[in-house]
Specification:
Elements: E1 21-29, E2 40-45, E3 48-54, E4 60-66, E5 69-77, E6 82-83, E7 89-93, E8 99-101, E9 104-105, E10 109-115
Parallel strand pairs: 1-10
Antiparallel strand pairs: 1-4, 2-3, 2-5, 5-7, 6-10, 7-8, 8-9
């Protein structure tokens, strides 16, 4: 299971390459709040997978170059002893680059992965 935790604000930074918005979030362990690296996420639009991203050693996942419109985001793989979520979250990029996830502002989001086993 994973949960998005929105913070204040709504506008995401522009992609460093200049085209479209950037959407980033952090994946953490539900038990100890440590970063989880190696979690694979997919970004979908109009029924087609348009991008994938893997959490880095800090647990950060980024999608860049996002054009205005609706997207779906889901976790495709969880590393080690973590369980990936079956949830599909709605991501929406406004014309001005503001991004919402399931209707909530998308700045400062965290994804929390539950462990399959208590001790691993």
């Amino acid at each position: 299971m994973y949960t998005y935790y929105p913070s204040q604000g709504c506008c995401a930074p522009r992609s460093p390459c200049g085209g479209g918005a950037a959407f980033c979030f952090v994946v953490t362990d539900a038990s100890v709040s440590c970063p989880v690296s190696g979690a694979l996420f997919e970004l979908w639009r109009c029924g087609q997978r348009v991008d994938t991203a893997v959490s880095d050693c800090d647990g950060t996942v980024c999608f860049t170059g996002l054009l205005p419109g609706p997207y779906q985001i889901k976790q495709a793989y969880a590393p080690g002893c973590y369980c990936p979520s079956n949830e599909v979250n709605m991501l929406f990029v406004e014309q001005d680059g503001c991004i919402t996830v399931d209707g909530a502002p998308a700045e400062g989001l965290y994804v929390v992965n539950e462990r399959i086993y208590k001790y691993c």
